[in-house]
Every structure is written in C-alpha cells, then in structure tokens.
Amino acid sequence: MSHARQRGRDHWPIRQYRRGVRRAWSPRARAVAHWAAGTPALSVLVVCVVVFVDLVRGTGEVWLPLLAAGPALAAATSRPSGVLGVGLVAALLGAGIGIRHEMAASALFVVLAALVTVALAGALASALRGHRERVLAAVRSVAETAQHALLTPVPDTVGPFQAAVHYSAAAAEARIGGDLYALVPTPYGVRVIVGDVRGKGLPAVGTAALVLGVFREAAYDEPDLLDVVRRIERSLARNLGDDDFVTAVVAGCPEPGRLELVNCGHAPPLLIRGTDVTAVDPVRPAPPLGLGDLSGETPGLQVVSFTEGDQLLFYTDGVTEARDAGRAFYPLADGLARHLSDEPARTLAALHQELLDHVGGRLHDDAALLLLRNPVTAGGAA
Questions:
Q1: What is the pTM of this model?
Q2: Rounded average pLDDT over 269-285
C-alpha cells in the first residue's frame, strides 16, 4: 500500500468527524461560522484598539478616522463579506463615538462616508484578489498536469541502475520551465538526456517537449547513441529559430561497466567513484543542439567506465549558477561530496536543501538534478 493511500486511510475518521460536525450545524450557525472565518482578527483588533484609545483619552474627533484602517487591512486578507463586516462594525462604532462626543452632524457624516467608501473599495479589492487567486490556482493545476506529461516521474530503479530526479522551476507559480530530463530503458541499454532550453516561458516549454519527444522515440530506434543526437539535431533545425538552441548531455549504458556520453554544450556531469567527485569534461566539445549547421562541428562519443558503486550526477546551470547574498556560486562538487549516500533520492534531497539555503530560499533559474547509481551486487560486495 502506498504512503499516500495509507495516510488517507489514517485521516478517514477525522474527515468523517468533520463532516458530521458540519452536518450538525444549523444553517444560521454555518453562516455565522463562514462570516467569522472571513473576518480577520487583526482588522477587528485594530478597530477595538481605536475605540479603547477613545474611551481612555476621550478625543473622538482625533481618533475616529483611524477606524478606516480596519476594513482597509481586511481587504488584504479577508473575503469581501469579511471586509464589509469589519466596515459595518467600524461605522457603527464610529457613529457611537461621534454621538458620544457630540460631533457636528456634517463632520460625523463625512467620517462615516469615508468609512463606508473604504469598506466598499476594500470589498472590491478583496473580490479581485480572490479572482486572481482562483485563476492562479487554475494555472498551477494546468502547469502541474503539463509537467507530469512532459517530465514523467523517474522510478527508483531503471534497468540495473538506481535513479533519482529533483526539479525546481524558478517561477514557483508556474512550476514548469525550460529544463528537461528523461531516463528510459531501451533495447540498447538505459539512456539519459538532461538539457536546458535557451529562453523562458511557453516557447521554452514547447522546445523542451519537442526534444523529449524526439529523444524518447529515437532512443528506442537507434542502436548508435550519436544517431539519437543527430535525430534531435535535425528536428530542432526544422523547428527552432536562428537564435534558439538547447544545451544537453545524452548518455547511454549499452553494456555493464560502459558509459557513453555525448555532450552538446552542456555542463559536464559529475562522476562519483568512492569519495572522489570528478567532472567528466568532454574530450571533443560540441555546440548546443540546434546550432550544428551554423558551426559545422559534429558531436563526438565519449566512453567512460561506470562500474559497480559509481554514481553520475547530471544537472543544469540553474544549480551551478545559483548565488548567495555575497554573489558566491554554489559549490556543487563540494556539496555532493558532503551529502553522498547509497540512496540517490536521499542524496538529492539533501543537496537541493543545501542549494536553497545557499540562495536564501528561492532559486532564480530553473534547476534540475538527476543522479544515476550503479549499485553493488551481492557478488561485487563480496
């Protein structure tokens, strides 16, 4: 049974209890509870403080305009009904204060009119804020669906390898960006792509979808890893603009202990062997995908040993270009060495948390991490 399903069963009695409580309430009680939930306590507290100060100091004409702070503050946190409720309370208390101090009718009318105007404007602002929040929630839902369709979840085990992925979009409200990754088992071994699309927004997402679609198809069809890269290049040449490109690393494991890499202008993966972390720099640098025709250069195949216990970290530049308050870059190799473990998911979770701590809580660029581990077999451990 999955953890999510188990948690759902664990919380079932609580949900049933809450439903029973809601059914037991009368319509009037539910209406009062709904209004109370939409009435921010801080706004009511502000109104009460103004009234208390008036009772203590006895200068109603001076403090009376401050009652407008109640509905104004409620507009930022409450529903329109809550804003109007706070405004009504402020107006009634303001009228009481004005009568108590025998204010002129014209002056009291101006103050009360101002309170009503602030309450109505606040209710309108609250309604617009609520509409924007609902639209944003819908956008997030669509973005999450698109992300699951584009960047399919990576299982804990792919072929003979352990794997884990951690992806963060810089635009938290969108939850999807231009970084891409895929890890697929094929007749020619497990194949991987990690890349970064130039640009942001929907055009970058469309390009990422194009690259992943071609990769997933070619990875199954082409025995040669270079042919997989060539098919992606041809597809991008037909569909990208002159200034668009994709940096990427494409890898494959056609046989045990052998890792093939094709680096197209991307950051070099990090190979972990024991406690040593080494960047696998390309022997034959190649331009990013989409720029092959302009440069005339073709990518080359690099072969690296990938034995039991070895791990390989793929990443995008959103990780290595993350800066702290002092503009210092995040030291990825050092962080990886600190948090290295035999469980890729745990390693990436610790690494990502340290990355967030380094930048102060929020990344300013999309960041993807993919860790592949060649586990030690029973025979190898012996």
A1: 0.67
A2: 92
